[in-house]
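Bench log. Compound arrived from synthesis this morning; before running ITC I wanted a structural hypothesis for how magnesium ion sits in the protein. Inputs:
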Amino acid sequence: MITYAEIDGFKNLSGIAFEPDSKYNIIVGPNAQGKTNLLEALWILSGCRSFRGSKERDYIALDGSRMSAKIKIRDLVREQRIELDMSRSTASPKTILLNGVKQKGSRALFDVFKCIAFIPDDTEIIKGSPEKRRSFIDMAASQLNPVFVVHINKYNAIMDQRNALLKEIMQGNAPAAVLEIWDRQAAHEGALISYMRNEYVGRINEICGRLYRTISGGSEELELEYKSNIFRPEDFEKPCGEEAYEQYFQKLRDTAEYDIRTGITHAGANRDEIPIKINGVSARDYGSQGQIKSAALVMKLAQAEIYKKRSKEPPVVFLDDVMGELDETRQKFVFDIIKGMQVFITTPNESALLPEIEGKIMRMSGGRLTEEN
Ligand SMILES: Nc1ncnc2c1ncn2[C@@H]1O[C@H](COP(=O)(O)OP(=O)(O)OP(=O)(O)O)[C@@H](O)[C@H]1O
Ligand SMILES: [Mg+2]
């Protein structure tokens, strides 16, 4: 739970300092005042990249030279401090402090501050490219198990190297035999990622099925599946080990010639798909807007539920402009699941919120926040 927050110089925000309510924090204001920016500034202190895909260099106000964001976060055991400072100077562009101690990267923050964001763009998880679904699963799984990020980063680095090498081989600047070394490493990381994704998709599928049945009044079925292009479902019954690495490696070897001709890697975790079906047909291709919206919401709620079960401390929930769009029944459904969590809600129109949502109301205007009594 966030007990104190301070933000200055992040996008249009300036001089913000407040003590959030332990339950509901409602941020109201007209469009383009900085409501989403506030959630975003808090969110990045969890060590995750911006939920709306902003680049780090765009965090600093256009007419400013530095930004700072700071929170105090309390769990059952203690209160901790997270501080982020960024400056345009190249000498020390970014500093992350955890309890006053300088951190090399943002990984340590993952364990301290866990949060989930619901944003209007979430529907991209359903209707966007396979990459959107992979990154949703990867981010959700990483928050549960930070080791996952390490494998993802390693895998991505190996893929960049492999793809660069493919082009070198194609142009005759490198011997084809060198590729095998990269394939061994890619197989190791790729297999681990595939197994972890399979496990997470299995868990989230179970919960999504149940939640979607409820939200649709029992009339519709939502189903997620993990489709690896290396492993069959029965392969995942055995633990990930030598046999899996070898299987992955062989597949890379089999497609190597084609990869060299085209300059890209065709097999592996970078080509995984996570098909999402409603009543047996692809939600991406056939879903109505309402179905797509509900399916995205259910996936986020399932993520929240997995979290809640896993950790002693519930995650902080950010609801950016999503509640006003939901009818009363669906809002109730959402609030039932996030009960007991600290929530930050933004809306241009507070009358669209359920009357039972009571808490601290704050107004955002021109990047400044004022509390309402
Ligand atoms: N790097 C930046 N420096 C200064 N201002 C910025 C920067 N990036 C974005 N902004 C400004 O922030 C404002 C948008 O803030 P934000 O997206 O938080 O609005 P909002 O209150 O959530 O609005 P809406 O209700 O439309 O979602 C815009 O006025 C935009 O110009
Ligand atoms: Mg907004």
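What the model suggests: The pocket of adenosine-5'-triphosphate (ligand 1) is lined by residues 11-12, 29, 31-37, 58, 61-62, 321, 346, 348, 364 (CB under 6 Å). The mean pLDDT is 93.
ITC booked for Thursday regardless.
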